[in-house]
Amino acid sequence: MLKRGVALEWDVVIVGAGPSGCFTAQQIASSGFKVLIIEEHEQIGEPVQCAGLISPRTVKLAEISQDLIINNLTSLRVFSPLGTKCLLNSSNVLAQAIDRGAFDRELAERAIKSGAELLLGTKAKEVERIAGGYRLTATDKSKREFKITTKLLIGADGANSMVARWLNLTHDNPKAVMFAADVELQPFNTGCIDIFLGQDLAPGWFGWIIPLSPHICRVGSGYAFINSDRSPRHFFQMLVDKYPHYFKGLKIIRQTGGVVPIGFMPKIYAPHAMLVGDAACQVKPISGGGIYLGLRGALICSQVAIKALQEGNLTEKGLATYQENWEKEMGEEIAWGVAHRKCYLEWLYRNLQRGTK
Ligand SMILES: Cc1cc2nc3c(=O)[nH]c(=O)nc-3n(C[C@H](O)[C@H](O)[C@H](O)COP(=O)(O)OP(=O)(O)OC[C@H]3O[C@@H](n4cnc5c(N)ncnc54)[C@H](O)[C@@H]3O)c2cc1C
Asked: In this structure, how many other beta carbons lie within 10 angstroms of the beta carbon of residue 171?
């Protein structure tokens, strides 16, 4: 762990030690640059604000240990707002439920092994543009203030990114607002994910049951694309009430929630600065899954950052290839997701006008 005051001149300072921040740090530190990650929480991966469902391509990309995988899911059942069910069975693993806290810690450990330093319990409070980079004001848990200077500032600080606001890289994209919980519940099939659609139980979004074991599931619901004066917890209760048969014996062990941004961000870089992960809207528009796209974003961000650091060109022009490469690699997938979500919402509203849920 870093001793304060030892070195304040960094090549790169990354705000946020989530998966996107740590994966970015690992790549850049491996190239020999001095990287500091600052994280406001005392422990990496806590509190968990995620259902921890990832695709096999994420496991491959992150090269995570197999023991982080809690359950392999091979089928998906979708409950439509009209009361019909659709079942998709596969002989392959469609998705994997992971220990999300341990996943974040594994990525953080790898970043440290690659040479990055990590300051826990440290919150970025303010940023000031200085010649050749930024001066960041941070506070530790005793509210002691200190300054850090860096050539390149990377905001990996999640959906409510302060770094994005400081850099004027804001957006008014819709957000999905969710309630989620680990619960005691007996799933009907431990290999099957259940998805519930309907404006009454998840307006513009979906409810879910993800089994972890014969007795434990992850469940949740929420809303998106609307301003709701109801909490996402309310919609979860609506889901439970609508499908009592599936939620029989429900007992909440741990609850959480949070938001994810949906869509493209017009700009994810600035002079001497970049955004990555949820802070850069690198999230799947259909599912709200941000782990895979955040890791892909981290790879592209770090490749551009390494080149710019090597060439000593951290100007806006020098970093513009980040946006270009991001859109080239992932633009089609995100645009496809946005178009399908729009299509679903239009279908829903048409049915609502006809009086169907
Ligand atoms: C309820 C819910 C369920 C989800 N389920 C899934 C799922 O099943 N699969 C999936 O792929 N995705 C899921 N997501 C989305 C996923 O959790 C995010 O996309 C992912 O965590 C993004 O990673 P990140 O590193 O960009 O940001 P985060 O994981 O949010 O990390 C940001 C970090 O920055 C730190 N930070 C913030 N501000 C500061 C500051 N000022 N100073 C210092 N540190 C700061 C935070 O403490 C945090 O550790 C879910 C999200 C929610 C809310």
From this structure: 15
